Amino acid sequence: MAVGKSVNRVDAMAKVTGRAKYTEDFYHPDMLVAKYFRSSIAHGRVTAINTKKAENLDGVHAVFTYKDVPENKFPTAGHPLALTEDHKDAADRLLLTRDVRFMGDEIAIVVAQNELVANEALKLIEVSYDEYQPLILPEDILEENARQIHEGSSNIVGEHTYTFGNDVDQAFEKADHVVEGSFRTAMVQHCHIENHISHAYMDDLDKIVIVSSTQIPHIARRIVGEVLNIPLSRIRVIKPFVGGGFGNKQDVILEPMVAFLTLKLNGRAVQINLSREECIIGTRTRHPFYIDVKTGVMNDGTIVARHMDAISITGAYASHGHSVAAAGGSKQSSLYPRAATSFHARTLYANTPVAGAMRAYGSPQIIYALECATEDAARKIGMDSVEFRLKNVARQGDINLLSGKEILSCGLADCLIKGRDFIGWGEKKKEYEKFKTGPVRKGLGLACLSYASGTYPVCVEIAGARIALNQDGTVHVMVGATEIGQGSDTVVAQMVAQTLSFPYENVLVVQAQDTDVTPFDTGAYASRQAYVVSNAVFRAATDLREKILDHAAVMTDIDVAGLDIVDGNIVDTRKSAQVMDMKTLAIDSFYHKERGCQLTAEASFKATTNAPVFGCTFVDITVNIPLCKIKINRMISVHDSGVIINPVQSGGQIHGGAFMGIGAALSEELLIDPKTGYIYNNNLLDYKFPTFTDVPPIHHDFVETFEPTSAYGNKALGEPPVISPPPAIRNAVLDATGLCINSLPLSPHTLFTAFKDHGLIDEKGGDNV
Amino acid sequence: MAVGKSVNRVDAMAKVTGRAKYTEDFYHPDMLVAKYFRSSIAHGRVTAINTKKAENLDGVHAVFTYKDVPENKFPTAGHPLALTEDHKDAADRLLLTRDVRFMGDEIAIVVAQNELVANEALKLIEVSYDEYQPLILPEDILEENARQIHEGSSNIVGEHTYTFGNDVDQAFEKADHVVEGSFRTAMVQHCHIENHISHAYMDDLDKIVIVSSTQIPHIARRIVGEVLNIPLSRIRVIKPFVGGGFGNKQDVILEPMVAFLTLKLNGRAVQINLSREECIIGTRTRHPFYIDVKTGVMNDGTIVARHMDAISITGAYASHGHSVAAAGGSKQSSLYPRAATSFHARTLYANTPVAGAMRAYGSPQIIYALECATEDAARKIGMDSVEFRLKNVARQGDINLLSGKEILSCGLADCLIKGRDFIGWGEKKKEYEKFKTGPVRKGLGLACLSYASGTYPVCVEIAGARIALNQDGTVHVMVGATEIGQGSDTVVAQMVAQTLSFPYENVLVVQAQDTDVTPFDTGAYASRQAYVVSNAVFRAATDLREKILDHAAVMTDIDVAGLDIVDGNIVDTRKSAQVMDMKTLAIDSFYHKERGCQLTAEASFKATTNAPVFGCTFVDITVNIPLCKIKINRMISVHDSGVIINPVQSGGQIHGGAFMGIGAALSEELLIDPKTGYIYNNNLLDYKFPTFTDVPPIHHDFVETFEPTSAYGNKALGEPPVISPPPAIRNAVLDATGLCINSLPLSPHTLFTAFKDHGLIDEKGGDNV
Fold this sequence. Notes:
homodimer; 769 residues; alpha+beta; Aldehyde Oxidoreductase, domain 3; five-stranded mixed beta sheet; 28% helix
């Protein structure tokens, strides 16, 4: 049984030996490099641009400006094509812009022999602007006479409301208590190891080849076609190994530009390789949210009503736009399905770096507010935080009232119990009672999460797999599911091994996507891959298994009903005897002159289900009041992601997500000057990303359920672990200090202000406690 | 209808613009180059080798000798694995050898930074030999006490006899006349534009990637695995565009060595790029043949008996060995199926460059002798050469007595009539009667040919195709059939367009093979591809067509029986109305959230038939006796290759084959010193390959038959055109001069000797006529 085992990653050796080829490793001897000329203001319009001097610099091949690019606006969000208007992404982007909407906006691009020359040339470009007041804060953006950041469009990119359950107003009226709170999450960045990089060339006058570090090769192909008005079959996107994406490569950022450049330069290879600084300001960020939450709760601990009002800031361009707020908001219905709930959200343009998809896509913001508010409600009625959740969270058999679907698998209550036991909730609570005063305080916190296993019914969910038997009795598997470091190729290999009854080592995954040949799949996002691909893989493997057994029957004259595959060998089940090994069968199928053929199977599958996943995080912290510093003593995240295909790899996802959650909770924030739109910390020195020394040992555990809509019982796991650590930490700070500090990150700066405001320290930071 | 149209090649633009990527265009920044150290003697054994100085040269990374390579001998012939012993290729080769068997044999190899350093290093290698007398001529090789060129093996690599039809001896006894002749063909070389080139690297510690200019990527993969004892799935062979092969790349020549080197050098990329000189002596050549033919003929023109005895020289190693003589010999039964025939052939080792597969694989030699002998028989009884053939050659319905199969399509008689008409046979014959004396003589000649459409039943015949519908309503086609310049990708696209009823432009062929993902096919040889792949393509395209129509039925609620595809659009046949275009259907199949999926189809097919093809060449020549020179005034080749998929491309094959045939007929020969084994003309200056100025305008025509065992009625065409020009020219020389000059090439040197021997010129070359 390959599923459930912690097998080594299929790409482990390639990666640890440095042999794995990333986009930058694909070399063309005559490749040119391109560098963006970026705006030095946050809001305005170019009145004049002079590129002559840059063009005349030795080694410069071309300079293009907003005057040279196609006029059709396009969306960049990595979504499958929507057949209905209601889910189409906002098309608000040009390849280069005259209208400047954030500091770093792309006005022109230089193509040169090498990066040195390109950087020199950038300095020679002269530009003048009409400057406008940058719109950074919601109140300024929403002001009645505020300038439209995109002329002709409202500054509100999207807005929606929903309600589910009973009448919400009535429910609030009947509630014993109503608890309110306002929450704010910060603009953070993905900080994947490999920056955005793409190159393109033409190996025919009729075809553009793009090699790119992307999560969505098939979507990139489609959008490039739309931007350049080229049939999609004339574009080929190759995705080599990818050094992380976390959603930032679920946007089509560089591909249209490198395609445009090679087309302009007669097919010559052109690469864009963003620096870290460019990557931080010029790709995507996580939307900062402003959220007001109202919770109606009964004395017995039942949450009866909830209202949430959220503002999401998408920055200069829509990118994933309002769908991030919508997706985040929808998770309320799977986490607390029994409370009457209303939700209102607006997404705003702003003169800030563009927000897009980032790990868990709106849920970290929404669930941060939700789980802080839930904690506040529990405290309001004096109920134990864990008991309060146990009473209110989703259970198997609940109906998700937004989707109308029954929750078929849910282990959240067991997750809470496991987490409570691990952290020693009862004893610690008691022990920490004496640490509620003085300079060093201690507390416990927890938060729950729910997430989905894909995007259905918002987007189409499709995956494909082709499996071919090799002459040596192994198989090669091609999938559209996109490995970006998360380990999807490995779980695909495990699934194939499981269904074929092959040794895991005998399943080889083709470790790159090439849109000309790879089965179609929309890519790596929404924690969809292992879930959606499971049914494609299962169908293809089942089909191949049948073909193998049919050929075995032809070879042996044994009735196929009496044949089986066991550990990669053909077995006569009636005699419990091995009939032949897989190599013998494969050789015959390929090389026998009259019978057999190459044995392959392919399946393309659309998922019309979407399994919710659950989890929780418990933390034990120490708060040093005078130092304004939080120390995490212990932390555990417990997840229900259905059947765990690969425990060690799944653990890796939880640990990685927890790191990222701790960063968002304690230190990460892209600091933007609210007056000028200047970004203070566009680099990894000033952007306080946690390192290994900044995070505590993290523990994880699973509550394995079996999700019947997945072929192997598995559900999403990639994104969820990032969601619950920040509210758990905020709730622990509340437990330790009695203060509701609702703005992330809980950095020394934030804590200082809060402690000062509440008199724990004095004006100068002196210790009052 | 795409089949039968002279559409542009799918790779035309890529090639004429120089964008098509060949093996040398795949670059690795740190790639090393390897150069063979070759023997300077033709026969002997290395007694000592010192590579120290070479190893110490700056820039040299390694030197390997025969001491360092695996000890298991392997075959290099590009044949599919044979499951029975009788068809296994001779395993007589090591990666490097201590026993020297031809001048240029590979004793050691230097790996260096670049070619300059490698060449310097080669000069520093010191070697001493035990020298043996080279065995070059058949009489020396077959001498009772001749040294075994491969110790422990006979110098006779293979030998076989066959008979078909009536008792041959009796038939000779009853014949009115018996005509005998002895014929000799030369060692010639393929002279493809792109020399042999391969490189290999490891992108994992567990996997070797080989990029190679090969006709047989899947076979190369298997043989490399056998040589290095690595499972075949751990080897990946990529075939980019190929600059011709003509059979010389149907041998696994460089791939095992580059794979061995990268394995030894920790996965670093290593390239071998043979020079033209190395390619001429160190790859493969066409087997020279010595053939005796006896023909029994009746006064009415019926050939009643034939016996042929052939010696084929394979040179230092077996490579394709005796199968070339066997394959060539077998064509008698499809060309003259009604004569009682016996055949005996032996293939000999010799201390000469290695012979292997070359365009038409033994048939140019056998049919040269056969068609010269047939001409001699016609003249013996005074019958017109054309009438004599018309009486004796194969007709539809004849039984090929060797295979036992009926000839289902045969237009040879019509080919002869077309050729006769074009050349103006009757009038010219009359006109040229007055040119049979004097210094300038004129004559007409013709020769027929037959060939096969694959290797069945000798080898397995298998082809695969996968077709995927793209979102823009085009399709991508993956085939294992290997494009090497012959145009196979184009005919595949035409076949797919035909069966799908798509515009040809909407069928895109993936123009590279990658053994990890490409459907299995044994490769480009035996003129098999268009024939064998036809049924795979037809099945896959038919399957995809059905899936498309099924989806159209789902979308439209029209019964599928009333739907059809016409010119790439969905049509309601009952209303004769277009329902939607293919893009609309494709978009729905990909992106509708509940119905459809990616529409793909794949088929792997084994052919258990093998259609014979036919053709003939007519020439009109002038022989200048004092100058010993032949001028071709007109030439026409007429072919029955079933349905012609692409007339212009097929014409290209005929013209190319005729060029090659004219070269073999008039000028080409690799000259080997019979005493030392020295090769006099290992370069394209001294090896007299015809250029455009050397060949006359060539005409071609077709007699289209419909071959029912092919999905599109087509049969082989790649190799056959090379077969008939040499005997046609020899027969024309006979017509012009009355001399049977039976040794190829009919170069001035050969003609001088013949003319002198027959008194047409005197000892000093003076004109006697």
